[in-house]
């Protein structure tokens, strides 16, 4: 539909109104959630759809959820046609294939009615602290061979009817999770946030009229598609490839190849992950919806970072992987630990795109860690789960060093130490940067992060979810790789190394020391500014010994001119 049929001012007002609803939806969810992962960790997302299920706008939250939501909405509409829905209904699902790849991510999609007709849908996703299964947190990797072991699988179901939770369905859900109070609270927070957004969307339609708003939808999607195609057309036609390896999928298992071939052709792009490993008999596979979500995100970062993401911007992007591969497994392949793949999907795309757009690429991210510590709290006799996100550095870029302790790709936040210690029987002994871990380069990679967690309870189950213990984050264009990560049980006693995805029963007084890898550098270290070296020394990102022992002769000569503190 032509943009000439709507003046720019009206279109801007409607677009900003839709965007504000998506953002307010997330703010409401954050402020009313019960779990630390949603409330402090920002492990949730929101989106607004038109009456045909097309995603019009999204909140600024997790790409893995948001890239999955357009397909979640279509599955919901397939299961529940408009004639089977009523005002106040909400559909829930967490199926790995239909949703964002693992059971903890529960979506709620609410149809929005005005004058008896559906005018759109509002949706939230939230990572629930537990959905049952083999270990607290529902993210055990090693020893899980099929999705039936991972917890409660929810196909699309009308969880809320005419504004009221279906108590029978809710009883089934809460009867199969370790933390029913927090899960109930977060499900209610999602519903409450959707109700607020639905009312805001009705106000927008009342103010401007449904016909005008729907015309704006078409213009927004068409404009976004055209803008994306223009951006893709600026990349030289051709195929750009890259491959890397994940450590393993459990103790004494083979590495997993992560490979992508990206083909640009006259304003469109196809990302093919078919050369990657086959799916594995452990809970770490990436269902195609999750693969697609982060692949679309990766292309958008390189080609069209500042324009809104919606259904229009996704039209020129095709994501594929052979059926049965690691990035397109068939049910019932397990996938509970798939969270750690988001960075590796992006790193693979980044490595390929460095060949086409070197000025926008960066050294590989430090990885992140997503450990869960759970059991029965001695103080209360009730279950606890300490769900954590530990985030480290960005890779060096063409014009800057890698940022420290930021959330790469997934847009979550470090959960405050005080929140963990208040809600769980643990003590965080240390949380600090690890010097000398960022890859050297003209622009160095960010440092790794160390977090030491002591168990104060009599016993608990530790489920580790990390990587980069065996394969270093790569550097680019002469930049050096970041240092490997490691996980150590009781570093001040027997210092037992743990696998990056190990599960272990621990006891009171045990300390798990999670040490994330450093990020990769960019460019030749010999070209590094001496002042940057001095600043790194003063900030503690590098040590004098490391500079003299491990960096190039030119850097040594430069650092020798610096007056050390």
Beta fraction: 15-25%
Strand order of the largest sheet: 2-1-5-4-3-6-7
Amount of helix = 25-40%
Number of β-strand runs: 20
If you compute it from the alpha carbons, what radius of gyration comes out, rounded to the nearest whole angstrom?
Answer: 24 Å
Report the principal-axis shape: globular
Structural class: alpha+beta
For the record, what CATH class of the domain at 3-220 applies? Alpha Beta
Low-confidence runs (pLDDT<50, min 5 residues)? 547-565
Subunit arrangement of the protein:
single chain
The CATH topology assignment of the domain at 3-220 is Beta-Lactamase
Count, helices: 13
What would the average pLDDT be, to the nearest integer?
A: 93
Distance between the termini: 65 Å
Question: How would you characterize the largest beta sheet?
Answer: 7 strands, antiparallel
CATH architecture annotation name of the domain at 3-220: 2-Layer Sandwich
């Amino acid at each position: 539909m032509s943009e000439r049929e709507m003046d720019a001012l009206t279109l801007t007002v409607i677009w900003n109104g839709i965007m504000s609803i998506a953002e307010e939806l997330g703010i409401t969810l954050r402020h009313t959630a019960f779990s630390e992962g949603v409330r402090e960790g920002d492990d949730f997302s929101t989106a607004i759809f038109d009456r045909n299920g097309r995603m019009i706008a999204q909140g600024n939250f997790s790409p893995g959820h948001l890239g999955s939501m357009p397909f979640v909405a279509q599955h919901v509409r397939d299961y529940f046609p408009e004639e089977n829905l009523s005002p106040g209904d909400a559909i829930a699902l967490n199926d790995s294939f239909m949703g964002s790849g693992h059971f903890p991510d529960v979506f709620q999609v609410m149809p929005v009615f005005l004058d008896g007709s559906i005018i759109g849908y509002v949706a939230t996703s939230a990572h629930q602290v537990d959905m049952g299964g083999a270990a607290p947190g529902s993210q055990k990797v090693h020893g899980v061979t099929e999705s039936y072991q991972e917890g409660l699988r929810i196909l699309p179901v009308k969880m809320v009817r005419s504004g009221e939770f279906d108590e029978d369905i809710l009883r089934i859900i809460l009867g199969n999770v370790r933390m029913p109070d927090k899960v109930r609270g977060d499900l209610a927070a999602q519903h409450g946030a959707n109700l607020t957004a639905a009312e805001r969307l009705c106000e927008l339609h009342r103010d401007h009229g449904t016909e005008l708003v729907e015309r704006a939808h078409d213009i927004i999607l068409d404009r976004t598609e055209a803008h994306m195609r223009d951006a893709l057309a600026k990349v030289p036609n051709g195929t750009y490839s890259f491959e890397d390896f994940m450590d393993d999928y459990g103790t004494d298992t083979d590495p997993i190849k992560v490979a992508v071939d990206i083909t640009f052709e006259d304003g469109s792009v196809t990302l093919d992950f078919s050369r990657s490993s086959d799916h594995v008999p452990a809970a770490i596979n990436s269902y195609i919806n999750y693969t697609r979500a982060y692949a679309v995100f990766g292309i958008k970062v390189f080609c069209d970072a500042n324009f809104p993401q919606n259904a229009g911007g996704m039209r020129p992007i095709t994501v594929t992987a052979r059926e049965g591969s690691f990035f397109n497994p068939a049910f019932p392949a397990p996938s509970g630990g798939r969270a750690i793949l988001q960075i590796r999907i992006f790193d693979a795309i980044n490595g390929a795109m460095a060949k086409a757009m070197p000025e926008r690429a960066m050294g590989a991210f430090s990885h992140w860690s997503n450990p869960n510590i759970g059991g029965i709290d001695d103080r209360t006799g009730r279950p606890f789960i300490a769900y954590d996100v530990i985030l480290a550095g960005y890779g060096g870029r063409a014009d800057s060093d890698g940022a420290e302790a930021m959330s790469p790709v997934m847009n979550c936040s470090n959960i405050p130490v005080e929140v963990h210690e208040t809600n769980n029987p643990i003590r965080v002994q240390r949380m600090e940067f690890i010097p000398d871990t960022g890859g050297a380069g003209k622009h160095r990679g960010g440092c790794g992060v160390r977090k030491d967690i002591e168990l104060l309870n009599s016993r608990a189950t530790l489920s580790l979810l990390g990587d980069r213990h065996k394969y270093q984050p790569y550097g680019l264009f002469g930049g050096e790789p970041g240092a490997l990560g490691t996980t150590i049980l009781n570093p001040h006693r027997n210092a037992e190394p743990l696998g990056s995805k190990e599960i272990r029963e621990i006891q009171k007084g045990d300390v798990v020391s999670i040490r994330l890898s450093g990020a990769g550098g960019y460019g030749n270290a010999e070209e590094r500014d001496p002042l940057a070296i001095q600043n790194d020394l003063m900030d503690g990102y590098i040590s004098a010994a490391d500079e003299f022992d491990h960096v190039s002769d030119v850097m040594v000569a430069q650092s020798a001119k610096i007056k050390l503190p």
